[in-house]
Amino acid sequence: MASVNRHVLPGFSLALGYTVFYLSVLVLIPILALFLKAASLSFDEFVAAVWTQRARAAYLLTFGAAFAAAFINLFLGLLLAWVLSRYSFFGKKFIDSLIDLPLALPTAVAGLVFASLYVQKGWLGQYLVPLGIYGAYSRFAIVLVLVFVGLPFVVRTVQPVLEDLDPECEEAAASLGATRWQTFLDVILPSITPALITGFALAFARGIGEYGSVVFVSGNMPYKTEIAPILIVARLEEFAYGEATAIAVVLLVISFAMLVVINLLERWTMRHER
Amino acid sequence: MSVDVVAERPRTVPQAVARRAQEDPLWLRVTLIVAALAVIGILVIVPVANVFVEALREGLGTYFANLFGDPDTRHAVLLTLTVVPIALVANTVFGIAAAWTIARFRFPGRTLLTALIDLPFSVSPVVAGLMFVLIFGLQGYLGPFLRRDGYAVMPYLIALVAVVVAVVSFLLLRPVGRKARQGLWGRTWIVLPLLAVTVFAVVLLPQLYLEVWPRNESLKIIFATPGLVLATAFVTFPFVARELIPTMEALGADEELAAVSLGASGWQMFRDVTIPNIKWGLAYGIILCNARAMGEFGAVYVVSGHIAGQTDTMPLRIEKLFQEYNLPGAFAVASVLTLLALVTLVAKIQLERRVPSTAKLFREETHERPQ
């Protein structure tokens, strides 16, 4: 639709040139520098930096917490998307717009608030801490704040699919004698599965890289509550640039793999929609 | 065609039945709504309320004292207000250029370019900051040079910027029609190199001759404002472009083609046709970009070096106050950023009302085409 002869509309070479230039200076060259620096390490050094016990604990926590948070978000997101697309109630628009708040709220603010809410004297901590639930300075705290940060993703991928779902499928299921629960499991769920997985992957990817909020709530104790980005910063502060770079490369490669997976999933979703 | 389909439905399936099939029992509806309200309440509303209550706990007087009385906090606000606009302008210009390229033309590598624009979203902010430290830091690739005689690059850099501005204005301002391009306008490939060399020389030579820039002095990028700008620009890189590409694709090129065929120059077409068409999409992208830039923490944390009163932006200031157990101070700064987030949300909703969301536009088109 928009394919236009380059000789008719002006500015192709100018715009392309500037785009590629700015992209290279700001994104490609820095990424290249990271890989160059990592390549300057010998293989043994690289492994020694990447595969220490502390680093392994950090990866495990990063991926574990991000996975747990994304998994919880799968259910919370489905619930919110369902309620927002199917029911009408007082204050629905308000709730709908609040879903995006975690994207607009600076992560440092989120971290600060969650750290103060769940400590013993905090608004929620005063009830939870006596029950033995520590929502601050623990692994649970990391999951909690990642749930907050990743909340919008599942909702925003599932909501439009639910709204577009053809009512006739549900009518057909109902007229064939399916209960509401059967209709949900066998008719609705299969058609929103791709969107659910995409939302999950987006929330997971976001959780892996998250730093600003986690640094406030985790307490940053090595082996216990130290996620990979915090470990990178710790190595940097010891001026161990090589080790920091090695860990960063591991994180980056995994993030890129996630990006590829998300793109494939989105393509899959698109095909399902048609 | 689609109208017919809609009109047919009541005849085949009564509307009441259709609605009943999609309706859940009352108890389920109430339970789910209450659960959803509880989730939003605990995860979003309580934290936001908590920010303002904590910030105002000791009264308005202390609140403003916390916000404006502390020189370091004041400086953090000013620094954020310097860094963010620069990054914003850079990314907006890039966003427009990228959207123009990708939405208006087909060329080899277009898909790759589109994918590369999204790349910064998948890079952890800390890793992004580390990249710039590796290039510009003292142990980095350019670090030793920058430390020895960093300002030596400035005359060349400025001359280069001047060349780019000159070439861009030449390309944009010349008329498009073949007839109008007579004399110098027509001979682009002679004029452009000459223009570039002349501008470069004119800008460079006086700077070198007058020794405008200090010699043998280090230029700080990491642990200084330029590093903060770079890190912020990296992290907020895709926002404007991502918003503009679908907007421009949905609009189509017809109006621009009309403008050009009527003899508008590139700049006239851009100013009078493109910008008015994309302005709301552009505003939307800029608002999202701004919110992220103001709140960026991880990338900025790595490149700033945390020198209080010098390289602390607002989010970094929050962290420092938090570490110093100055919670009222931290919450005072946080309340400003929260207010900004709320304003962003309101603006976003207003804009979504103005532009029927691009995704919807897309969907309508794909639905109607095959019929």
What does the secondary structure layout of this molecule look like, with pairings?
The complex is a heterodimer of chains A (274) and B (371).
Chain A: H1 12-39, H2 43-50, H3 53-86, H4 92-98, H5 101-104, H6 107-117, H7 125-128, H8 139-164, H9 167-175, H10 180-209, H11 214-217, H12 228-237, H13 241-273
Chain B: H1 2-12, H2 15-22, H3 26-55, H4 59-69, H5 71-104, H6 110-117, H7 125-136, H8 143-149, H9 153-173, H10 188-210, H11 225-235, H12 239-251, H13 254-261, H14 266-295, H15 298-304, H16 314-323, H17 327-354, H18 358-368
Helix pairs in contact in B: 3-17, 4-17, 5-11, 5-12, 5-14, 7-11, 7-15, 9-10, 11-15, 12-14, 13-14, 14-17, 16-17
What does this entry look like structurally?
The complex is a heterodimer of chains A (274) and B (371). Chain A has 274 residues and is mostly helical. Chain A has one domain: Orthogonal Bundle (MetI-like fold). Chain A is built from 13 helices and no strands. The model of chain A has no long low-confidence stretch (mean pLDDT 88). Chain B is mainly alpha-helical and 371 residues long. Chain B has two domains: 226 residues, MetI-like fold (Orthogonal Bundle), CATH 1.10.3720; 72 residues, no CATH class. Chain B is built from 18 helices and no strands. In chain B, helix 7 runs parallel beside helix 15, helix 12 runs antiparallel to helix 14 and helix 13 runs antiparallel to helix 14. Chain B starts with a helix and ends with a helix. The N terminus and C terminus of chain B are likely disordered. The chains are: A mainly alpha (274), B mainly alpha (371). Chains A and B meet through helix 1, helix 3, helix 4, helix 5 and helix 6 of A and helix 2, helix 3, helix 5, helix 6 and helix 7 of B.
Mean of residue pLDDT of chain B? Answer: 84
Assign the CATH superfamily of chain A: MetI-like
Q: How many H/I helical runs of chain A? A: 13
β-strand number of chain A:
0
> Helical amount among residues of chain A, as a percent range?
over 70%
Oligomer: heterodimer
End-to-end separation of chain A in angstroms reads 19 Å
CATH fold-level name of the largest domain in chain B: MetI-like fold
Radius of gyration of chain A, in angstroms, nearest whole number: 23 Å
CATH class of the largest domain in chain B: Mainly Alpha
The arrangement of helices and strands of chain B along the chain is HHHHHHHHHHHHHHHHHH
User: N-to-C SSE series of chain A?
Assistant: HHHHHHHHHHHHH
Which architecture of the largest domain in chain B per CATH? Orthogonal Bundle
Give the tally of structural domains of chain B: 2
| Structural class assignment of chain A | mainly alpha
Q: In the CATH hierarchy, what is the superfamily of the largest domain in chain B?
A: MetI-like
